[in-house]
Amino acid sequence: MSIYPAIPLITKKDPFMTPFSSRRDFLKQTTAFSAGLAFSSWAGSAFASTSLNQPLFKISLAQWSLHRALKGGKMDNLEFAKVAKEEFGISAVEYVNQFFKDKAKDAKYLAEMNQRASDAGVKNLLIMIDGEGALGDPDPQKRTQAIKNHHQWVKAAKTLGCHSIRVNARSNGSYKEQQKLAADGLRRLTKFATQYDINVLVENHGGLSSNGAWLAGVMKMVNLPNCGTLPDFGNFVINRKTGEEYDRYKGVKELMPYAKAVSAKTHDFDKDGNEINTDYVKMMKIVLDAGYHGYVGIEYEGRKLDEYAGIRASKKLLLKVRDELTPVAEPCPQPVQEECCGRTRRGLFRNRRFRR
């Protein structure tokens, strides 16, 4: 896991530390705030680099959000990047391999995907891989074949300029047996991906992979810097037949130390625009408290809203939550020569670790 060292910006004893309140207060007191920062170029530059110039997190779009349009022939895979930018104002995308399943080795097609994304001003982040075999298969030959099946997607991801592929840790057997088998498959695939500077990310995606403690244990067993997780806010059903479900907040908290991407799963919304299954403020605080400030990918799977409306509702919710959790400075109520109280709202100067 690649983590950049955090740099402490302002200590509690710094006389130029300013208390923080809401964004509404910021709009009312912009002039006073600017004057307060002028007293210290160091404090001002620190605040600007951690709040004003850098959002708490960025928003990307997972292609699965449009799976009905893609499967129904209403949209082509090559149009996805353009649609993300022009329809939703989103400049980073996450592909799903099943929408260009036979194109992994097609250099001309991948070049066209790159060109379309570039023309739209869109960044390719990762490819979600399904249908290539179980990386934790108990049969050694089948497990090895599954690993080989993923090689083409590692290369495709490299060609597309992605940083990762997302895989599944499916297996069979006891709790510990499945951990060992999944870790073996992931370790071998990750070592191959290292040659291409590609991360291998595991999503909680059913079975024991939806058990946060189990998957965190697998990460510890693999113990390679470019093998991580892609926590999905909604995929915590362990057994669909029995309805066994893992606590989503506990699960995400357990997986965030290894996260290099995050999936914001949405289904339905209440009249205020909040997702009815997940408390997004609570969930995003878990994500941010883990030091993650990278892309959060919208993955809408609801049916009450059409896919386009569901994506827009998801983006609106994420922007609202980001706005609420973003600390904003107000002028210090005390004269500059006196020591300021140094209050902060939700830890603006928490140690940040930017992960791609």
Automatic annotation (TrEMBL):
Gene3D superfamilies: Divalent-metal-dependent TIM barrel enzymes. It comes from the Bacteria. One of its GO terms (molecular function) is isomerase activity. The keyword Isomerase applies. Residues 87-317 form the Xylose isomerase-like TIM barrel domain. Keywords: Isomerase. Pfam families: AP_endonuc_2. NCBIfam families: TAT_signal_seq. This is Xylose isomerase-like TIM barrel. It comes from Gimesia aquarii. The lineage of its organism: Bacteria, Pseudomonadati, Planctomycetota, Planctomycetia, Planctomycetales.
